[in-house]
């Protein structure tokens, strides 16, 4: 049973039930009925509730930021499911911290409402147009920004974006809704809200700026000019391992006497580094441990390259070998040294240190965090959307290594493992269910690469000109042939110098 837990029947989470929860459970000490909204957050998944919402909650616990409460929002069918769950429990969330030495529970109350999820996004646009909403934040995943891989700009031909350009008052996308709301604010003489990306993208604020301004320019050049002059899009780096919620997480919350339909489990580590560029004010998140700095790019480069790319070093090998969690990968006798070697020889050399943290010490930290057996972070979740994560996290490092004349053997093996995983079967022959938005095109490409590995690299939307770089293409070809002929274990052993 979890530390501080109770055997009494679990109470359905609600505002009215807070006082009856066990003393071991931390809960809001502020008057939630007196909170006023200041933030609309689009994409109210586990990460947001375990990270950004928690920072705001901690400020509210100290009597601060009472006019910055969060209104949840979403644009996808799954968001409607989350809305129903959260509204039923007064938008409260149970956070369960998974420390190897014991667990603890806390109720976060910084969200006060969740907007209806509608095809035309009317309620979302209405809320964002309100002058008391001063920040609109997003967690919509790395692949959710409609970026054209060839140009790096907004994909104006994507059907969703094309719809929003043709029908700007009834948009499909979160970005179209933001542009529609900003248009209303400009017309009403209100200033813009700050648009804040909280996704794992290097330069996430710059990317969001490009999306919003480009979409606005396609429909209203005056609006685009107004945004360029007055709006802000702060870059940030976010970090906390937050597994998906399933029956075991719901049961864990119940051990604390809480019947929560959508609890969040998380590691005993958080980091939020933010560029201080907020055109309409902001909460003092630094008082809750966030870092405001003009060195966000250095922090995010370290995190994205060592943690996020590191996840991809592990996940495909783990998936192919049937390892359920990232901690399982880190306990594997070949995957862990593979991870360590690739990090120290082919990733860390292309990472700059930040105040008080060297790349090598950060590798040590990530190795410890990934090894936490209490975190049931599945290899499947980490391997999801490899088409975005490899292009965003791994390939930029590979390009830097090639430019510097460094080794790319390990990174080439990482890419070969992804190509093998996308064939849709594990090494034991069991099926890997679709795990990428582009699965339907990745699987046939992976099958073709079984006999001709370089056909995988011909997917220019991911690899661009890397297929023509011999140092990478030859190594990739070799590794994929080894994996198909002899298996993942043999390839890892060969890389580590233990096999033929």
Concise summary:
This protein has helices at residues 46-50, 52-61, 77-88, 122-129, 159-166, 174-188, 204-219, 221-230, 247-255, 296-320, 326-330, 335-347, 359-370, 379-383, 386-403, 409-421, 439-449, 454-457, 460-463, 470-486, 488-495; strands spanning 11-12, 37-42, 69-73, 93-99, 102-108, 111-114, 135-138, 194-197, 236-239, 258-259, 264-266, 271-274, 291-292. With 500 residues, it is an alpha/beta fold.
What descriptors fit this protein?
500 residues, alpha/beta, five-stranded parallel sheet, three-stranded mixed sheet, 46% helix, 11% strand, globular
Please characterize this protein's 3D structure.
- The protein has 500 residues and is an alpha/beta fold.
- Helix content is 46%, strand content 11%.
- The strands form 4 sheets. The protein has a 5-stranded parallel beta sheet with strand order 6-3-2-7-8, with helices on both faces. A 3-stranded mixed beta sheet has the order 5-4-11, with helices on both faces.
- Strand 4 and strand 5 form a beta hairpin.
- Helix 10 packs antiparallel against helix 12 and helix 15 packs antiparallel against helix 16.
- The longest helix is centred in the middle third of the chain and has 25 residues.
């Amino acid at each position: 049973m979890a530390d501080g837990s109770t055997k009494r029947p679990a109470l359905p989470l609600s505002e009215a039930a807070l006082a009856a929860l066990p003393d071991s459970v931390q809960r809001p000490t502020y008057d939630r009925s007196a909170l006023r909204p200041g933030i609309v957050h689009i994409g109210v998944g586990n990460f947001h509730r375990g990270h950004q919402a928690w920072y705001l909650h901690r400020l509210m616990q100290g009597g601060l930021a009472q006019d910055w409460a969060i209104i949840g929002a979403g644009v996808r069918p799954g968001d409607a499911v989350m809305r129903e769950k959260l509204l039923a429990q007064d938008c409260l969330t149970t956070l369960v911290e998974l420390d190897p030495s014991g667990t603890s529970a806390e109720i976060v109350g910084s969200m006060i409402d969740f907007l209806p999820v509608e095809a035309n996004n009317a309620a979302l646009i209405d809320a964002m147009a309100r002058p008391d909403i001063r920040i609109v934040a997003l967690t919509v995943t790395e692949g959710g920004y409609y970026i054209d891989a060839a140009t790096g700009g907004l994909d104006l031909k994507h059907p969703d974006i094309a719809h929003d350009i043709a029908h700007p008052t009834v948009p499909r996308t979160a970005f179209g809704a933001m542009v529609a709301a900003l248009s209303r604010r400009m017309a009403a003489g209100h200033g813009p809200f700050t648009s804040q990306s909280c996704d794992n993208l290097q330069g996430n604020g710059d990317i969001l700026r490009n999306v919003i301004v480009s979409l606005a320019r396609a429909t209203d050049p005056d609006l685009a000019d107004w945004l360029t002059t007055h709006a802000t899009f702060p870059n940030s780096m976010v970090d906390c391992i937050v597994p998906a919620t399933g029956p075991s997480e719901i049961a864990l919350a119940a051990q604390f006497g809480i019947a929560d339909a959508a609890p969040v489990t998380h590691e005993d580590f958080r980091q939020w580094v933010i560029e201080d560029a907020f055109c309409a004010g902001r909460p003092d998140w630094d008082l809750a441990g966030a870092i405001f700095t003009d060195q966000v790019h250095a922090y995010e480069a370290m995190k994205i390259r060592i943690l996020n790319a590191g996840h991809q070093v592990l996940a495909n090998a783990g998936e192919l070998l049937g390892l359920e969690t990232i901690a399982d990968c880190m306990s594997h006798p070949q995957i862990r040294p593979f991870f360590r070697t690739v990090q120290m020889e082919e990733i860390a050399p292309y990472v700059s240190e930040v105040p008080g943290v060297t790349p090598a010490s950060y590798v040590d930290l990530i190795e410890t965090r990934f090894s936490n057996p209490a975190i049931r972070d599945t290899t499947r979740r980490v391997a999801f959307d490899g088409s975005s994560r490899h292009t965003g996290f791994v390939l930029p490092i590979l390009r830097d290594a090639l430019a510097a004349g460094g080794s790319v053997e390990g990174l080439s093996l990482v890419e070969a493992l992804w190509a093998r995983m996308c064939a849709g079967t594990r090494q034991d022959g069991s099926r890997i269910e679709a795990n990428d938005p582009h699965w339907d095109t990745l699987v046939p490409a992976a099958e073709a690469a079984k006999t001709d590995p370089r056909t995988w690299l011909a997917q220019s939307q991911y690899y661009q000109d890397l297929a023509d770089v011999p140092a990478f293409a030859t190594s990739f070809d070799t590794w994929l042939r080894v994996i198909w002929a002899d298996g993942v274990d043999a390839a890892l052993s060969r890389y580590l110098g233990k096999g033929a």
